[in-house]
């Protein structure tokens, strides 16, 4: 499925020397919001930030440490203060939205590194992970007047891509799965605001405005093609995501922004079940191929072609069958086949989500508003 495909691309990206930030959208995490949900998504991505040497997430500190270490070596070679070299290497950040504060936080991290102030280093990493909820807290801890908030998430992704390149990586790949959570928003205004942000990302990537930054989004066909609530309901996105009209009758075009994943065939499912069997059973006591064929025939009788097109429940039932056979040596597989219950995979939970779900209390922030 799409999640497996995205994980495969993630592994390839790590092998190629990219930094990856992956996260699943949820009712309390989305691309655009006003109640902290977008910042929550960024914080989740930052926690999951991975590199080749730390593929399981939590690599943000390593990336920052790598950058300041390189700057320190450069400063020693040039006989300059490390802070000056950091300021020089991040000088072009000040031209980007939020870049001045981003560079200042990196310099504050170096100060903590140089003086042994772990609290300062921790505060800098918290800021980079989007964990400061108020500007007041950020100002007290780091002396900066802004934080990563809902309105600046995409701008900080662009800053992060520039920063990882300065740290010696080849770029940043952002992965967002479960995009169907945007489809489930009940508010048309909230959906369109998220789709507008996707349009902004798409324009930047296709036009080359976002350098060294790639996006991978996973969703269902309904999320893409539904003209009432999906991406196709936003006319500007529909025209940009339209498929190649020549790619039909078995022809494919993988150069466009949309990649459709083909359903499994019965032959594919047989190979998949055989691989599951190889993992769970040794050769001596393995089920024969006739058992796999009988199992697939039973599933076909119960739920039709859905057994191989959406095979999640089929594979689950097969694993359960193998587990029972393993723990009950005297039982024969042909005695169990007809008793197996297989239900059709109905896909995503399409329960509607209210716009305010996951909204966070902004807290006591004396910089939220003011009057002259």
TrEMBL record:
Listed name of the protein: ATP-binding protein
UniProt-listed Pfam families: BrxC_BrxD
Which domain of life does the UniProt lineage start with? Bacteria
Q: Keywords in UniProt for this one?
A: ATP-binding, Nucleotide-binding
One GO MF term on file is: ATP binding
Q: What is the lineage of its organism?
A: Bacteria, Pseudomonadati, Pseudomonadota, Alphaproteobacteria, Rhodobacterales
- Could you tell me which species this protein originates from? Roseovarius indicus
**InterPro entries referenced in this protein's UniProt entry, alphabetically:** BrxD
